[in-house]
Amino acid sequence: MTFLQCLMTILILTVVPAILGLGFFDKKSEASLSLCLVEGYIFFFAVFQAVAVPFIIREKTLTQMLSVLIPVYSILMAISVFFFVLNIVRRKKQGFVPAKEVYYLSTSEIIYLGLFLALILFQIYKAIFYVYADGDDAFYIATAQVADQSDLMYLRNPYMGDGMGLNYRYVIAPFPMIIASVARLTGLKSATVAHIFLSPVLILVTYLIYYEISKILFKEDREKRYMFLSLLAIFVIFGNYSTSTAETFLLTRSRQGKEALANIILPFLFLMFLKIAEDIKKLKFTHFCMLTLTMLGAALTSVFANILAPLMLGLFVLYAIYRKAGFKNIFLLCLPVLPNIIFLLIYFVEG
Amino acid sequence: MQAVFSFYEKAFENMASFSGSGLVLELFFLCLLFLFFKLDEDYKKHMLLYFPLVVLVIYFMPIWAVYTSLRDDSEILYRIFWLIPMGVVVCFSCVTAISMLPKNGFRHFAFLGAVLLLIFSGEYTYGSPFYSPAENIYHVPDSVVKICEEIEVPGREIRACFPEELVSNVRQYSSVVFLTYGRASLITNYREVSPIQELLREDIIDTKSLIKELRRTDTPYLVISEDKLFTDSLWDYDFAYVTTVEGYDIYLDNTAYIGLWDDQEDLWTE
Question: Which of B127, B154, B175 is the last residue of a domain?
Fold first, then answer.
């Protein structure tokens, strides 16, 4: 593993999603790097799902898929940067003056923030330098390794190696192909990409989502936000009271699609719901876009996500009806589930 | 009636399995009760209190009985609980309770109390026996890496029989090493019985039967723990000892062809 390979992997897994997220920057609000990365990751997942599934169903190779995926991401990144610059220019023309963030931290804020950061670093350290013997890695990482080494996606039995037909349960949720793609582009083995790079990055993205949630719950009170985040990090570390919890999945299976569902997609949906619920009668276009991308990105993680994510959105739609959000807003809240319906149809028809 | 009773029995079992050994679920319900009295009727109360309660109601709805009766993987029903932001509810409640105290040292002690509460309610993830220091950047045993490097043939796949303790790791490192039996044979629920696996579990391995199975499955390489005993020498059946790697002996079938396939231009196409 060379320095260049490490740098490339980190760039692909952080800078690319961050640039994709710039396009969602709201001209009326503060630019937030954490929100850029979070929304960018959702966009990253959604685009990957939209491109990968047709290629896999048509039994194309990983190389063929990447030959389309890379230009698509490149164009989308350019568009994101364009809209970001456009928004900045419009803000300046409209005379929008963002509230100055007070960067002076009190002693207690420093302590709680320091504690939170230390706990995250501890979790990232454990993810990189320790192994959790999870049997599902024998499927998911092997699937990625097969795709990288043989160029075939879901056409080889990951357990034994022999040829097999497409299993639509996994074909429509090709999260391991992200690992395979990064491995192919960087020259690293899929296992290295999954354990050393993807795991820590997804842990970080999860906490960024909770950071954004804390901003909504506690507004400008930084002490409470950092206290909340520290407690949350401890809650996660001590979340192994059952192997089924989202917290256990975060720390022990952070390179698998199911973990991304439990700790990125669903918490991000909750974040979106909090944002929309603040003023539910004013559903923004960016909210609608983000919800649609989230539902599409959810499909990447697991076939059951096509039930869970729409169920969560469906509950929010009921809430919107209760809050008298208006027919147009309720209709727009229902539309994002269309990709999940399509994938479920594919699964039930072909699977 | 029986079906309904069976469904609710399974639903409670699933919930009990999700709540596991700690007191977090009880703590969560306590927090919901606290938020009910503490929060004003606004969107925060709706999302942090009523939303989780509605998810619990959904979980116990009979519609899931249809799902559980139709699906083999119905044990994953617990994933509905992922819709509930349990950590957010618990930690928000803790911070809200702490904030009720005056802004002085008491708050920080209360924070310590909340930390201890979370520690004693839960279970330390890194204390699990399944955690161990990584031996390399691939997070597979070093023995797997070295064995694969020993037996890989550039330009083609090669099949090998590995011991059970290594089987789950081999193809995470190398997809050109095919296996005689895979992890599917180790999973209780989805067991595909492998004759070779059963032979390898014997205290003294029947050499003749093992060799017969290895040749039937076109497996040139046998990887086995160096302290395993055989009824006969493998050499008597044309399996030659190659080397020992990290406590595992590697044998190669002298009758097997392990060169490149001349008539295959592109090895990986169907």
Answer: B127
Judge: B85–A267 Cβ closer than 8 Å, yes or no.
Answer: yes
pLDDT bucket at A30, cuts 50 / 70 / 90: low
Place of tokens 């989502």: A209
Q: Residue A272: which H helix or E strand, with range?
A: helix A266-278
| Same domain membership, residue B236 and residue B183 | yes
Q: Is residue B7 part of a domain?
A: yes
Is residue B171 a contact partner of residue B182, using CB atoms and an 8 Å limit? yes
pLDDT value at residue A307: 92
Question: Which of B127, B152, B172 is at the close of a domain?
Answer: B127
Q: Which residues pair with A23 in a beta bridge?
A: none
Q: Which residues pair with B204 in a beta bridge?
A: B229
Length of chain B: 270
Residue given tokens 């694969």 in the structure block: B148
Residues B120 and B157 placed together within one structural domain of the fold: no
CA-CA-CA-CA dihedral for B187, B191, B192, B197, to nearest 10: 60
B76 CB near a chain A CB, below 8 Å?
yes
B71 in contact with chain A, both atoms CB, cutoff 8 A: no
Distance from CA of B208 to the nearest CA of A (A): 24
Q: Residues B175-193: pLDDT tens digits?
A: 999 999 988 888 765 566 6
C-alpha distance from A215 to closest chain B C-alpha (Å): 12
Task: Using pLDDT thresholds of 50, 70 and 90, give the confidence band for residue A27.
Answer: low
Residue B261 lies in a domain: no
Q: In which band, very low, low, confident or very high, does the pLDDT at B118 lie, cut at 50, 70 and 90?
A: very high
Domain coverage including residue B60: 2-127
Q: How confident is the model at residue A134 (pLDDT cuts 50, 70, 90)?
A: confident
Amino acid at position A326, single letter? G
- A148-170 pLDDT tens trace: 999 999 999 999 998 888 999 99
Say yes or no: B179 and B209 in one domain: yes
Nearest to A294 by CA among A12, A45, A13, A14: A45
- Selection from A328, A185, A212 nearest residue A273 by Cα: A212
Interacting residues of A344 by C-beta distance below 8 A, sequence separation 6+: A306, A307
In a shared domain, residues B180 and B95? no
Chains A, B: CB contacts within 8 A come to: 240
Is B173's Cβ below 8 Å from some Cβ in A? yes
Among chain A residues, the shortest Cα distance to B166 is held by: A138
Q: How far apart are CA B35 and CA B27, in angstroms?
A: 12
Same domain, B13 and B120: yes
The predicted model gives A111-119 an average pLDDT of 96
Note the pLDDT tens digit of each residue in B206-230: 999 999 999 999 999 999 999 999 9
Please tell me the distance in Å from B149's CA to the nearest CA on chain A: 14
What is the band of B22 on the pLDDT scale with cuts at 50, 70, 90?
confident
Q: Are A295 and A306 in contact (CB under 8 A)?
A: no
ipTM confidence score: 0.93
B24 to chain A: closest CA residue: A241
Domain tally, chain B = 2
Cβ-based burial of B117 (10 A; exposed 0-12, middle 13-18, buried ≥19)? middle
Q: Is A161 on the interface with B (CB under 8 A)?
A: yes
Residues B12 and B50 in one domain: yes
